[in-house]
Automatic annotation (TrEMBL):
Superkingdom classification of source: Bacteria
Protein name: Uncharacterized protein
Amino acid sequence: MVTTTRSFASAPVMSLLCCIREQLPLNHPDLGLLLYHLQPMLAAIAKHGKNANRVAEFLDELKGQGAAPLR
């Protein structure tokens, strides 16, 4: 899993977000779980500038679809 995460983390942010968006689960609990795991990874790869804005918009979009971060 770590190797896969690192491989995706090296991809351009927009490409990564497009790949994730295409595979989003339709089930809201699954979407919440995905968000729980994605937030730390995306925060690590997009710390400033346009990438950070794109990631923030993407996460807001997921939250708008009913995904709530798990605590």
